[in-house]
Amino acid sequence: MAEKTQYIARPPRWECHGDIVVVDESGRELMGRLGNISDGGFMAECEQKIPKGSIVETTLPDRGPVRAEVRWVLGWRFGAMILPDTQ
């Protein structure tokens, strides 16, 4: 008998293609391109590889400035979870 695969539902993603500037932990401004956005994060490609676990800042369309933690990296592409405002 085959094992059943369990899928975890994830929030909807909206495809989004636009140029962004990603500011890394060193304060470098890196050119990037969005791939998608969700309520809790985004996926983008960047001109330089960004290490998993890094905190980055960028400005997202219809959302404004955000801080995010890089959760996964695949080549030049990365996925980041938007961090709650600390203000």
Task: Give the tags.
87 residues, mainly beta, Thrombin, subunit H, seven-stranded antiparallel beta sheet, globular
Description:
- Strands 1, 2, 3, 4, 5, 6 and 7 form a seven-stranded antiparallel β-sheet that branches.
- The chain is globular and about 50 Å long.
- The model has no long low-confidence stretch (mean pLDDT 89).
- It has 87 residues and is an all-beta fold.
- The chain has a single domain, classed as predicted glycosyltransferase like domains (Thrombin, subunit H), CATH 2.40.10.220.
Quick structural summary:
With 87 residues, the chain is mainly beta. It has strands at residues 14-15, 19-23, 29-37, 41-46, 55-60, 64-74, 77-82.
What ranges have pLDDT less than 50 throughout 5 or more consecutive residues? none
Distance between the termini: 53 Å
Identify the CATH homologous superfamily. Answer: predicted glycosyltransferase like domains
Helix content: under 10%
The general outline is globular
Sheet having the most strands: 7 strands, antiparallel
Radius of gyration: 14 Å
Order of helices and strands: EEEEEEE
Strand content is over 45%
What is the average of the pLDDT values?
89
Q: What is the fold named in CATH at topology level?
A: Thrombin, subunit H
The CATH architecture can be named as Beta Barrel
Total number of strands: 7
The assigned structural class equals mainly beta
